[in-house]
Design a protein that fits this description.
Layout lengths: L3 H15 L8 H32 L4 H11 L1 H15 L6 H18 L4 H16 L2 H11 L9 H10 L2 H11 L6
Length: 184
């Protein structure tokens, strides 16, 4: 079977040959294009996940791959970070460090508003895994942009439940920078 993008191109040419230019394209053609565009996108997403799994297994996690994977796994928190980032910077730029600092701000606001839940635990575990398997830039980004900014201006009574969920490796990074755990 030919690749999907060739089928998509073939469908377009065939439909154009059959339908005079003065008439609108047939419904079958439009549905075919939509279906094949969906199939191409779906195939691309599956391939991207497969490559990410290989990278993760080999320890080749980059800042960009971590950013994309985080957005896929935690869209609600990512949207909150995007709003904070846009309010401060005016646009989503290529500086991943500033975006992860905005993510820390979003997480701090969540810590103030609500008790910890499974999502927060999953987020902390996500960054622990990516720190352990990431390249030097990824580790630095997690340390400098995220961990160092967490728990900032969070009331003392709200910190403790989150700190107990915080993975040991990330606690070490936090304490190395701040000199002690957050005030609990």
């Amino acid at each position: 079977m030919p690749p999907l993008f060739l089928l998509h191109a073939h469908l377009r040419v065939t439909s154009t040959d059959i339908t005079p230019k003065s008439q609108k394209r047939s419904r079958l053609h439009i549905l075919g294009v939509v279906y094949f565009n969906y199939a191409i996108t779906n195939t691309f997403i599956q391939e991207n996940r497969r490559v990410m799994t290989i990278f993760r297994q080999k320890g080749h996690i980059t800042i960009l791959s971590m950013y994309k994977e985080f957005n896929d796994q935690f869209p609600d928190v990512s949207n909150k970070a995007n709003h904070i980032h846009m309010a401060y910077w005016g646009e989503i730029n290529d500086d991943a460090y500033s975006w992860f600092a905005s993510l820390a701000t979003a997480l701090n606001k969540e810590m103030i508003r609500q008790p910890p839940n499974k999502t927060h635990e999953a987020i902390f575990e996500f960054f622990r895994q990516h720190y352990l398997m990431g390249d030097a830039q990824t580790k630095n980004c997690i340390d400098v942009s995220l961990v160092e900014n967490l728990f900032w201006q969070v009331p003392q009574n709200k910190i403790e439940p989150y700190w107990t969920l915080f993975p040991g490796k990330l606690k070490c990074l936090y304490e190395a920078f701040h000199g002690s755990p957050p005030r609990t």
